[in-house]
Amino acid sequence: MDGDNYNTQNIQVLSGLSAVRKRPGMYIGSTGPQGLHHLVYEAVDNSIDEAMMGFCTKIIVIIHKEGSVSVEDDGRGIPTDIHPKFNISGVELVMTKLHAGGKFDKDSYKVSGGLHGVGISVVNALSSRLDVVVCRNKKKFVQSFERGKPLFPLKEDGGCENRGTTVRFLPDKEIFESIEFSFDTLSARLRELAFLNKGLSIGIADERTGRENNFKYDGGIVSFVEFLNQGKSPLHEAIHFEKEKDGNIIEIAIQYNDSYQESLFSFANSINTVEGGTHLTGFRSALTRTINTYAQKRDDIKLANEDVREGLTAVISVKIQEPQFEGQTKTKLGNSDLKGIVESVVGYGLNTYFSENPDTVRKVIDKCINAAKAREAAKKARDLTRRKGALNSHSLPGKLADCQDDNPSSCEIYLVEGDSAGGSAKSGRDRKFQAILPLRGKILNVEKTRLHKIFENEEITSMITAIGCSIAEEFDITKARYHKIIIMTDADVDGAHIRTLLLTFFFRHMKQLIEKGYLYIAQPPLFMVKKGKKSEYLYDDAALDTKLKEIGKEGTAVQRYKGLGEMNPSQLWETTMNPAGRRLLKVTMNDAVEADKIFTILMGDEVEPRKHFIQSHAHEVANLDI
Ligand code: 0RA
After folding, report:
1. Contact residues for 239 (Cβ-Cβ < 8 A; gap 6+)
2. Averaged pLDDT for residues 453-462
């Protein structure tokens, strides 16, 4: 190899990659678990691009034993010839040049695009080792890198039968907090990508555990809504349409079910736009308007947005030239022209579909009119100002013991089961930053409840008011008054049930709180072990076992705590509330689709799938990831 010359030409490129290593967060969002997994998505996106252009049918992701991940596709293979301007191979260019994105031909726009759309060179920069294998024209080529630096130029390494690209990388321990990949997190995203790219086969295998999944959905997002509606009762065949307008591709799948919940997922260039955006606004507006036109032919009733959301399962996928991502987590589509475009495409598509499918129209309109009637009846039956007052006002619920501080990021609220534990928590807390809201009795099962009923429930409204960010159309996460919302229930069956009901409420109505990492579960101790004058709190059975083995059973008293009420205020503070020693479980959701299904099954009204779920999960320990 032509050593010196080779290095000189790469100085510019390498200084680009060293910028990535200096400020990884700017390129992949964070160096935590999200950023780590983002590396895989970035690598997969290149293969997805190949698939979207019609050259790749299969992608295989493998988590290897030693912690690296490989992404293999059967696309055309990254070009191996020497690029005239840079004088290095196409492979090396793609792997080392920032924002190259892998595409030489400008005509083809990148429609998958990782969240940050930075290209695979960023993966290379942040990997202690990366190996690429390209098969093109029956020849095999290889090149290896360490922390972005090529160890040698691309070289031929024998022949091969099939074409394609394999990129295998080991994330750099010096960069990431942890380099342990989660099979479930990757699997969830790959399934989503398989839904969004119909017919594409995506497999994932975990060599550490032997787990594997294979995804291929010939129905695309129609399969997606059908999947979301499993365990629910759909009212009609999925409605589907896809249209290109002004260079944007808009694809919609809709299927109502008989529940009161909405399950809606929106995507822009395959990115889950959790915070919504212009495409979603356009969709909602067209849906309400179109259904209203039909409803008014039948009944003199005006449907509100929330009436057409009841029982709606929908997937919206737009593919656009230059997506602008905004919002707190950069998952809100900002392109202003998309609102009108989606609105007109959805209006037209729905009208066409409805005019050809009168049976479906009737079922959908019935459902929405029912929702509207229930809402209006409830409205008449109560003082409207109360709802507005209860949810938006500055009058906090009477039983809330608020904290003194008013900076949300340093404030916490404990949602405590029962008045007596609530009382202990109020005396035991640090009132400067800890607020207490006692909850009485069972919490409403929101899974089986219409929105307006939710507004009538006192426990729920007091929670909504205390937290401050409202729900439904008025939901606004920036108004959250606490950045730690801590569920504290007894360690018994009732406590577990209340916890599940609360989780269901947060998942259905304040999902973004979970996504922001604001929701926690307190971990009160299960035991106190006393020997002589020494006592110690233990938090699970395993810890108790270990302790008893260590100190011996003789002369040891074990007290089992069943309820929070068994602890006095100072014990509660010491064991469960004092930030210095307490344990908190953060509620995370690495798969919103899976969580949706789990809540449907756990809290919905079909008994069979629930039985199956409980049986097939009975062997697992309680897992508070939802
Ligand atoms: C640039 C041009 C061509 C293919 C690719 C990039 C490509 C990149 C990656 C990254 C992972 N898998 C990939 N597969 C393809 C087209 C080359 C041609 O015209 O044959």
Report:
1. 252, 253, 254, 255, 350, 353, 357, 360
2. 88
Give me ligand 1 centre to Cα 10, in Å: 21
Q: Please state, as a whole number, how many other Cβ atoms lie within 10 Å of the Cβ of residue 453.
A: 16
Return the H-helix or E-strand segment holding 193: helix 183-196
Query: How does pLDDT run across 73-126, given as a tens digit for each residue?
Result: 999 999 999 998 889 999 999 999 886 443 433 334 444 444 445 689 999 999
Ligand 1 center to 272 CA (angstroms): 25
* 536 C-alpha to ligand 1 centroid (Å): 61
Residue 70's nearest CA partner among 181, 234, 161 is 181
pLDDT band at 480 (very low <50, low <70, confident <90, very high): very high
The class (CATH top level) of 221-376 is alpha beta
Mean pLDDT across the chain, nearest whole number? Answer: 89
Counting beta carbons within 10 angstroms of the beta carbon of residue 493, is it exposed (0 to 12), middle (13 to 18) or buried (19 or more)? exposed
Angstrom distances, CA of residue 115 to CA of 32, 65, 186, 333, 390: 15, 27, 15, 11, 38
**Residue ranges covered by each domain of the chain:** 18-215, 221-376, 388-524+570-590, 527-560
Q: What 3-state DSSP class applies to 363?
A: helix
Q: What is the pTM of this model?
A: 0.84
Fold of the domain spanning 18-215: Heat Shock Protein 90 (3.30.565)
The residue contributing the CA closest to ligand 1 atom 3 is 78
Ligand 1 binding site (Cβ under 6 Å of any ligand atom): 46-47, 50, 73, 75-79, 102-104, 165
Give CA–CA dist 59/543, Å, rounded: 43
Fold observed for domain 388-524+570-590: Rossmann fold (3.40.50)
Q: 606 pLDDT exceeds 80?
A: no
pLDDT tens figures, 32-74 = 998 999 999 999 999 999 998 999 999 999 999 999 999 999 9
Q: Dihedrals φ, ψ of 319, to 5°?
A: -125, 120
Mean pLDDT of 296-319: 93
